[in-house]
Amino acid sequence: MSVEPLVSIITPSYNASKYIRETIQSVKSQSYSNFEMLIADDCSSDETRAIVQEEMERDRRIRLIKLKENGGPAAARNEAMKLAKGEYLAFLDSDDLWHPNKLEKQLAFMKERELAFTFTNYRMMNEEGKMTGSSVNVPLKTTYQDLLKNTSIGTLTVMINKKKIMGKVQMELHRDCSEDYGLWLSILANGIDAYGLREELAYYRKCENSLSSNKMNSALKTWNTYRKIRGIGRVSAAWYFIHYSVNALKKHRKAF
Asked: Domain for residue 230, yes or no?
């Protein structure tokens, strides 16, 4: 009888008391049960840690990691990834949600095709959790060159098989860059392709005060990712950035 692989869910948190319990519940409601949820708290000043502590006492699969100093979401994710015991990594921020069959369907998709890196469709919701617009649909396959020109991979949908990834899975710490996007690019740059599961299995909460809600800030982070994380020259970076901007605009119009 084969043992189902452990999935480590990586969740950074910072002052997330308004949403963190709902996010945890969406994980506890998964049809696939062999997971650990590592919540790396980035020195929250609200009730986030207390809420997570309560949930830990109810479910031993949930773990709280208390960071000693505020380092941003990438540093929190890195700390959780260092402690992750699973063969697979999945990513979920502290205000986003998953469909109950997300882990089961995505893991089956990966195992059947022996894939290293996958992502899925997702839907936007507002701060109150009301669904908005249409589903953000993903391509069937994304290469390194494709990803340089697109924003097709939603972090909350990513699942990685650590054994099939060449090199350590860690994010470079540049707060003026898109550090998760930089990690996906670094993985694909090693000749690995990302495959899209075209089912709506995650829900992204669009908060007005979130770092990613500012389009100009997001665009600047993408540019800095090209230059600082990937080391791309100005001319090539500009060419990729034009394509990124057009594709981002198309996605935004479809999503709202």
From this structure: yes
Domain count, the chain: 1
Question: Strands 62-66 and 35-41: what pairing?
Answer: parallel
Residue-range definition of the domain harbouring residue 247:
7-255
The secondary structure of residue 164, as a DSSP letter, is G
131 is a domain residue: yes
Name the burial class of residue 24, with classes exposed (0-12), middle (13-18) and buried (19+) by CB atoms within 10 angstroms of its CB. Answer: buried
- What lies within 8 Å, CB to CB, of 34 at 6+ separation is 4, 5, 6, 7
Report how far residue 123's alpha carbon sits from residue 191's, in angstroms, rounded to the nearest whole number: 29
pLDDT tens digits, residue range 6-30? 999 999 999 999 999 999 999 999 9
DSSP notation for 99-142: -TTHHHHHHHHHHHHT-SEEEEEEEEE-TT--EEEEEE---SEE
The answer to whether 98 and 30 are in contact (CB under 8 A) is yes
Total residue length of the chain: 256
Q: What is the CATH number of the domain that holds 60?
A: 3.90.550.10
pLDDT digits (tens, 9 = 90+) for 60-77: 999 999 999 999 999 999
Nearest to 205, CA basis, from 93, 39, 99: 93
The phi, psi pair for 90, rounded to 5°, reads -130, 155
pTM of the model: 0.93
* Amino acid at position 145, single letter: Q
Is residue 1 domain-resident?
no
Buried b (16+ CB within 10 A) or exposed e, 137-150: bbbeebebebbbbb
**Residue 98, SS3?**
strand
